[in-house]
Amino acid sequence: MRAAYRRYRLLIVNVVYWLLLLYILAETLWWFIELGRQNERIAQYELRHASAAADVVYREAHMRALSYMGEGCVFLAVLFVGAFYVYRVVRREMRLSHQQQNFMMAVTHELKTPIAVAKLSLETLAKRKLEPEQQAKLIQNALAETDRLNQLSNNILLAAQLEEGRYLPVGETISLSGLAEQIIHNFDGRFPGRLNASIGPEIELKGDPLLLELAINNLIENALKYSPKDSPVRVDLSATAGKPVRLTVADLGDGIPEDEKSLIFRKFYRVGNEQTRKTKGTGLGLYLSRAIIRKHRGQITVADNEPRGSVFSITFYT
């Protein structure tokens, strides 16, 4: 229902916009015709009442006509440029508003699920006497969902801080190998057996450990989320002497259409549409990952995996 209303509102805006533009063009054309007629009347009047020769009168009339044509062309050029700019801005703002609404709905869902799971686990621990193994499992579930809440909160806060230029990255030498191994260990607790990793030893990088952890977390989270539950996700970190540090995350999901590969790093953008999309998310993960990698003088790209899925590659030019 909401989607239909948004389409209807967009249709009304487009119709009104084009009607106004056509009206302005019609008025401009009428103005040009009237100037031509006025120019002709001036020439006829000068021929009857002025002492100037006919060729001089016609030359002046011709110059006025050229002047009117020049002014009209400039006006039309400015009109079309302005109309094109306004149309793009309005479309962009409406699309952004639509994406922000989807973002708020997604955030609400993403918050409710871990809160409900953590609350249920804690209520069970408070009301029932359980075996130590059962208690440990419930506590682990609550901690895992708390980590999800923490990551979501970090994504939202960091997106706002990066956009406003208020976040100052920390520049320190960190063990990227140790950071990647810790991230994979954390995911193994939530998704046992899903990650296959090959982490090169003693790979160091100068950067902000919190930002890098968030960027890698987002890539692995997406790979796990958008691929079948029984399919593995491959994480590789390698570095060769004299060459950039490279980290790849490969999944066996449905992949990303070619025409959307250049769009997925935009804020709030999500592959597919709201009617057919089943996987929940906020549309901030890849946007933040690219922003973080760029701050570390790196590049992030996406390509098709074989036989299916996607491969996200991060290259750090140290």
Overview of this protein structure:
This protein has 3 domains: 2-99; 108-164, Orthogonal Bundle (Helix Hairpins), CATH 1.10.287; 172-316, Histidine kinase-like ATPase, C-terminal domain (Heat Shock Protein 90). It contains 6 helices and 7 strands, in the order αααβαββαββαββ. It has helices at residues 2-49, 54-127, 132-164, 176-190, 209-225, 285-295, and strands at 172-175, 195-199, 204-207, 233-238, 245-250, 298-304, 310-316. Strand 4 (233-238) and strand 5 (245-250) form a beta hairpin. The radius of gyration is 31 Å and the shape is elongated. The mean pLDDT is 80.
What structural keywords apply?
single chain, 318 residues, Helix Hairpins, Heat Shock Protein 90, two-stranded antiparallel ribbon, 6 helices
Helix content: 55-70%
Which blocks of ≥5 consecutive residues have pLDDT under 50? Answer: none
Structural class designation: alpha+beta
Q: Kindly provide the radius of gyration, computed on alpha-carbon positions and rounded to a whole number of angstroms.
A: 31 Å
Number of domains: 3
The first-level CATH class name of the largest domain: Alpha Beta
Number of helices: 6
Percent in strands? 5-15%
Question: What do the pLDDT scores average to?
Answer: 80
H/E element string? HHHEHEEHEEHEE
Q: Which descriptor suits the 3D outline?
A: elongated
Distance from first to last alpha carbon: 51 Å
CATH topology type of the largest domain = Heat Shock Protein 90
CATH architecture verdict of the largest domain:
2-Layer Sandwich
- Adjacency order of strands in the biggest sheet: 2-4-5-7-6
Count the beta strands: 7
CATH superfamily placement of the largest domain: Histidine kinase-like ATPase, C-terminal domain
> Biggest sheet, in brief?
5 strands, mixed
